[in-house]
């Protein structure tokens, strides 16, 4: 029993005083998490047979005081982006409407055409180049199920019929995106309107 205790004590002290640093990277995926060690300086050939017990000190000698433990300097890895799962929307009891960056000339009684909606904000230049340049173009950021979506809005029309005729006159490449007519009042009435004029 004394041999096992002394070997265990020696291993425990060797582990504490060994000064080995191990940096781990936590990888998370939708299926679970995996911890991967990046580096380790701990010897791999240490077995209880190769470790010798520490020599015993005479009874009249006082042990030296242990130095205060130093914080091990480890590199902190950058957090990796985690794909977000769709979360259900939670109704808030105090919902304040954010400020809208809508031009003063735009009336709530007017209509526009929503050309496309994207889940990223990498710009609409590619889509704007395909649109006729005689009408104003807006970007609208909105939140859908807690995630940001960016819509491209084209034109400002006094009636739904005028917007419909403009929709029919759009190039075929734009019609392939499935554009549809929206009223500015529906955009203003949404929970998170954030319109910015692009031209």
TrEMBL record:
Domain called SPOR: residue spans: 105-183
Region (Disordered): 60-85
Pfam families: SPOR
Keyword field contains Signal: yes
Cleavable signal peptide: 1-22
Spans through the membrane: none
UniProt GO molecular function: peptidoglycan binding
Gene3D superfamilies recorded: Sporulation related repeat (3.30.70.1070)
Cited InterPro entries: SPOR-like_dom, SPOR-like_sf
Keyword Signal (UniProt): yes
PROSITE patterns membership: PROKAR_LIPOPROTEIN, SPOR
Keywords noted in UniProt: Signal
Designated name of the protein: Sporulation related domain-containing protein
Lineage: Bacteria, Pseudomonadati, Pseudomonadota, Gammaproteobacteria, Vibrionales
